[in-house]
Amino acid sequence: MFLSPSLPVRILIIFLYTNTLFSQIKAIVLDSITKDPIPYVNIWVQDWNLGTMSNTDGSFKLGSFNGTKTIVFSAVGYITKKIASNQITNTIQLIPQITYLEEVVVLATSKRKKLTQKVGKIQHSKLGFYLPGFKEQWIFAKYFRYQPYYKKTPYLNEVRIATHSDMEDAKFILKLYTVNSKGEPEGYLFKDNIIVTARKGKKVTKINLQALKIAFPKEGFFIAVEWIPFQKYRRMWGAIQPEIGFMQLETQKDSWYYRYGRWNRIWKLTELEKYRNKYNHLALELVLSN
Asked: Per its UniProt entry, which superkingdom is the organism in (predicted)?
């Protein structure tokens, strides 16, 4: 005679069955050579609206999802790694990315007059709103094309970006991406995270890049912004400070976002009448110098 399982046994069966359907990942991301923890790693479940970032000690926790998925790990200075969720152990190791830079001749500057020129412009009349970060690790990027007349001012001097924060010293990450053969962000122009502090209130936050001595690549490059989802930067409904300014323009050209573990062109706005059929662009500008 078949006997029905007892209540505790039934609960155990349900628990085991549920855990085969839904997975949650906890691990630490390490440098494959030094074995040091890697902070600020962008982590996504590919093609799912689920992402997170590693803490300063390299640890992370990724929320529940069903079945086996591809997990995408990307970090400044490292080769992007994709791995099946059922193959992840207690540690994930990323391989440092070797960057080959063209030879740059640096001339003595003591007797040279400093030249600058601005690329792009924060159009305040088209700056429609400021967006906070949320728990999913979105990245927004803007592409800058090289022009022959940049030859007189070939170095990245400063980035200016519209920010709004209701707290003191909210931090976010500025990233500089190179361009792949498809015209998408891939690889890094600078091998380290650039951590930026946004002051309280509406500001044009200025990031000085002069000391990095980065020349404007002939292929162009991307400037990108990523929020840091640490608890100390969170506000109501989980919104992450600071808020970043966006302009609503008629063209989709040069505006990108990272979601679902892949880069995409910015989407067309359809909901708000005022901005309908327009596209979000980061409200930022670049200053070059010699």
From this structure: Bacteria
